[in-house]
Every structure is written in C-alpha cells, then in structure tokens.
Amino acid sequence: MFKRLKQVLEVLKEAKLTLKLSKCYFAYSEVAYLGYMLSADGVRPGEQKVQAIQQYPRPRNKHEVRRFLGLCGFFRRFIPRYSDIARPISELLKDKVPYMWTTLQEVAFQTMRVKLVSRPVLQLYNPTAHTEVHCDASSDGLSGMLLQRNGDGDNQLHLVHAVSKKTTPEERNYHSSKLELMAVVWSLNKLRHYLIGIKFLIITDCQAIVHLNTQKTVNPQVARWATLLSEYNYEIKHRPGVKMAHIDALSRAPVSSPGDTEQLDERCGVFITMSEEEQVIAMQQTDTRLRAIMETLSQEQSERTAVNTENMKDYQLRHGMLYRKVIVDGEVRLLGQYLIRCAKVL
C-alpha cells in the first residue's frame, strides 16, 4: 500500500499538483469516486445511482404488484430464470388469487431488487455509447433513467443510473404536460455530469414535450426550463405510455424528498446572469452542426482540407461566437448565425 501511495505522490509532485490533507483518505478498504465505490474487489455503483430501485417500496395491492413487475419486466432479458424468481409475485395477479404477501413473495421481491441493481442489468457509464434518458411524471413523483447500449453486438439498453423524487403539494396541481416537462428538466439536471458534451435521446410519453422547441412559450417558468435544456445536445422522442412501464413505476413510487426541484430555478438564475454573448456561445455549442463549424474554424489553415476551407468561407469565429457573412445593400456584413437556430430555444 505504501509503495503505491509513494508512486501516486511522486506523480503529483512531478505535475506540480498539491492535495488538501483534510480531503485525503488513507488506508480505507473502499472509497467513493464519481458516484462509484472503488475497492480491491473492483468497481460497483454508489448507493445514489440505484437508490430509486434499492428503496422501491413493497407492493401493497395487486395494482402495485403490476407496477413493480412492469419495472422488472423491462430488464427481464438480463435476469436468468426471471420467470421462476418473479413467479411468487406474479401469481398474485391471477383473478381468483387473493392478495396475500407472504415470505415467498418477500424473498422474490428482495431478490428482484438485488438483480435490478447488479450486473448485467446495471453497467458502468460509457461516454461513447448510445445514450437514452427515459423520463416520467405522476402526481406522486418524478423519475428518470439513464440507459445505454454497451455495444459488442448487444443492442439492448442497460441501466446506468436511476433517480426519482416525490412531488410537492404545489407540483401536484401542475398540468400534466408541465409536470412531464419538469420531470425531463429535473432528470437531466440530476444526470448532468453524464450528459454534458454528448448527444443523447430523451424518451417521454408526453407528445407535447416533443414539440417544445417549435412552440412559442408564454409561461415564464416553462420558458426558464426551456433555457436550461438549451445547454444539452439532445433529441426528444415520444413513446406510448404502455411501453414505459419501467419508468412509470418509479414516478409512482418515488423515494427521494420533494425539495430539490428548487435547484432548477436557482440554475436558471445562474444562466440568466450570463451575458447575452455568453448565452449565445453556450447555445451554439449545443448544436451539432454549429459546433462542427466552430471546431473547423478553430483549426490552423494548414490543417483544413480544401473542402472544409470552401465550406467555411461564409463563416467567421470571433471571441468564441460564430457569425455568418451576408450581403446587405452590396456590403458584406456579419450576422449572428445563432439568430436562426436559437430563436427556437428562446
């Protein structure tokens, strides 16, 4: 242990980096790092990554049994002997079987929760993998799941991180579309460290959210939330509710306290205090096409291909902001390219 510690300290010394002693941990059997627990046995997810499933409440009636099985069923392909494990619980859904939770059901329930937060259902985050965020809302709570395909011929979605929270009394009175949008914004905020800098899909069962960027927003709070979404590179797709049982189960049985949606308005305040130019640059960076143009213009002339040079002749990059050259009354002028694309966001 001391040999490795010495090696680490020597590397830090060579890099002229210093450590704050009060934030150092020595001789621990495991440590938390970026949401994971690292130990001699390897890497496992931290509790917060799977809290929404680990603390999923025990079903109290047949309706809640059906909901829990909807969550489990989404990942059944990864769980060996899924039908055998779930049988004591699924038997309760039969018409002539009275609801009675016994030791058999409890063992199956606890086993299933463990399976859902273990490999191969759960996998480590991969910034290059296909990424989806599934979101849902109900009067009871908000929920989100970060899911990825791990490649290697496996086209199935694996769980990376799950979140859920209870709604406040005020939020329970929101219109369903507004509540669904809040679920998207809240989930992305909780999963932000995974999502910044990558392109991903947002999956929702709310059709209205799909057209958010093409509709004029008059509600000030919704407009602020739309501003927060502008920092991400995403595409929203609708999926019918019958195919969203896994995420619906979490929104109707949330585990976290309701208070942290207040952070959304706080983040809006931080974003709004940015200058107009800073906001424009931030939004340009979220657009795949504009970002590619900006990256090309940042290259040395000698590094560009002839095709790139020709394609870039109508653009200029000034102080980090992209402009497009236009002819007005016979004169060449610079037009903020963002005016065309970011109008949908603002």
UniProtKB/TrEMBL annotation:
Q: Which UniProt keywords apply?
A: Endonuclease, Hydrolase, Nuclease, Nucleotidyltransferase, RNA-directed DNA polymerase, Transferase
Q: Taxonomically, which superkingdom?
A: Eukaryota
- What GO annotations for molecular function exist for this entry? endonuclease activity; hydrolase activity; RNA-directed DNA polymerase activity
Family matches, as InterPro entries: DNA/RNA_pol_sf, Retrovirus_Pol_polyprotein, Rev_trsase/Diguanyl_cyclase, RT_RNaseH
Q: Which Pfam families match?
A: RT_RNaseH
Q: Write down the EC number.
A: 2.7.7.49
Report the SUPFAM superfamilies cross-referenced here.
DNA/RNA polymerases (SSF56672)
Q: Does the keyword Phosphoprotein apply?
A: no
Residue span, Reverse transcriptase RNase H-like domain: 127-232
The record ties this protein, via PANTHER family, to: PROTEIN CBG26694, PROTEIN NYNRIN-LIKE
Protein name stated in the entry: RNA-directed DNA polymerase
**Native species:** Macrosiphum euphorbiae
